[in-house]
Amino acid sequence: MYININFKSKTPIYLQLRNQIVKGIAKGELEEGETLPSVRRMAKDIGINMHTVNKSYKVLENQGFVSIHKRKGVQVNSWEEMHHPDFIVELNKRLETLISEAFCRGLSKEDISKTIGELYQKFSRGIND
Amino acid sequence: MYININFKSKTPIYLQLRNQIVKGIAKGELEEGETLPSVRRMAKDIGINMHTVNKSYKVLENQGFVSIHKRKGVQVNSWEEMHHPDFIVELNKRLETLISEAFCRGLSKEDISKTIGELYQKFSRGIND
Amino acid sequence: MYININFKSKTPIYLQLRNQIVKGIAKGELEEGETLPSVRRMAKDIGINMHTVNKSYKVLENQGFVSIHKRKGVQVNSWEEMHHPDFIVELNKRLETLISEAFCRGLSKEDISKTIGELYQKFSRGIND
Amino acid sequence: MYININFKSKTPIYLQLRNQIVKGIAKGELEEGETLPSVRRMAKDIGINMHTVNKSYKVLENQGFVSIHKRKGVQVNSWEEMHHPDFIVELNKRLETLISEAFCRGLSKEDISKTIGELYQKFSRGIND
DNA sequence: GTGGTCTAGACCACG
DNA sequence: GTGGTCTAGACCACT
Asked: Are D104 and C82 a contacting pair at CB < 8 A?
C-alpha cells in the first residue's frame, strides 16, 4: 500500500497516515486480517518519526479499524468489528457539517451523489479482488 | 440562531462555532446579508471569550462565508460569494476520507444518499422561507 | 469629480475618499485653487456620514493637499504647497515596501515602469486640460 | 535579519514586522526555504508580544510569502508560490494611489524610476549571493 | 458600539 | 521546542 505524506499540509502527519490507511481498508488494498507494516518499517518507508506512526496506529485501534498485538503486530479488523454504532453517530455529525458546506459552495445533491457513487465503485472493486 | 458549544470536545471551540454558523447558513437560519451577533454579544451568549468568537468570524471571512465591517459588524455573504471554486477541491478530499470511513462502518451508498437527501430538504426549506 | 466608495473594502471610508481626491488632483480633475464640495454636500452625494467627509478633509489638510477656510471652504493647494520635502521621505518608505512586494510577486522593473508611465500620461493630460 | 519597530508609528506593529520581512525576502536577506525565528524568539528579540509576531506570520502565510509548520516553524516560500496573480491586481491599485501622491509631491517619472531601479539592484544582488 | 490591536499568561498538540 | 488555542483586559479607530 502506497502512503503519501504532505509535509506542508495543515493536517497532522499522524492523521494523514490514519486517513490513508482508512481509505486503503475501504478500497480493499488492506484486507481483513492483513498485518500492517511494523511501526519502524512504516516510519522508515515514508520518512517520518516512529512515534508518529505509533500514534496513527493507536488512533486506528481506538476507532476500531485495527487491533494491536504484541506478537502478531497490527492487524486490520473484520468488518463486523468496524461496524460499531458509536462511531456512526459521530460520522453523521461530520457528514452534516461537510454537506452543509458543500451546499453553501453551490454543489447540488446530484454532484455529491455522483462523487460518492464513484467512490463506492472503487470500494466494490476492492471487495471483488 | 442557537449555538451549542461542547467544551469537552476535541474540536476547538472556534471551529465548533464556525461549523454551526455554516450549518445555519445552509439551513437558511442565517440569510444573505443578515448580521451576526457582535463578537462581544456572541461571546457573552455562549459563555466564551470574545477573541475566540473573533477567530471564528475571521475564519468564516477567509473562507468566503461572511464579510466583516468595522461599523456594520459581520454579515452573511451572498451565495455567489461563497461559490469560490478553490474550496471545492479541498471539500472533495474531505468527502473522500469521510465516505471511506462510512464504507468501513458498514454504511451503504443508499444510507448516505438518504442522509444527504434529508439534509438537502432542510436546506431547501430554508430557501423557501 | 466622481467618487466611488466601496463599503465592503477593508480600507476605511475616510481613506478611500482621501485617496480618490489625491488621484483627482494628480489627474487634473481637481485644479489648483478649486473648491471641493462642502462637507454636507459631499456626504450627501456619496451617501456617507458628514463626520467621515470632515475627517478626510482634515487629513488632506494635514498632508498639505488642501487648505480649509471658514468662508471659502476647502481649496486645493498649489503644487508648491504640496511639494513639502517631509512627505517625500515617508513616500519613499512606502514605495520601498510596495516595490519589494512587487518584486516578490514576480513583477519586473519594466512591468512597474510601464504601469507608472501610463499613470503619468494621465496626469500630464490633466495638466493640459 | 535586523528588525526595527517604531512604537510611535501609526502603522500597527504586526504590519511593520510583516513589511520588513517582505523587504528582507525581496533583498535576499531571507532566502527560499529559510526558517524565520520562532514567534517567541522574534518577540523577545524585538521586545513585543508573542501574539503580535504570530499575527505577522499568519498574515505572511495568507499572502503566500511563508508556510507555517507546527514543528519546523515558519519557512520562506519559493518564488513560484509567491507569484499568485490575485495579489497583483490589488498591488496595482496601491501603486496607483502611491504614484498619484508622488506626482502631487512633485516627483517626476524619472525620480521614481531611479528609486525603483536602485531597489531592484538591491534585489538582484540578493539573488546573486 | 463595532471590530482592530496589543499585551499577558496558561495549557495543549505535534513530532 | 514549535505553533495552536483559550482566556482576560486594555486602549484605539471608525462612523
From this structure: yes
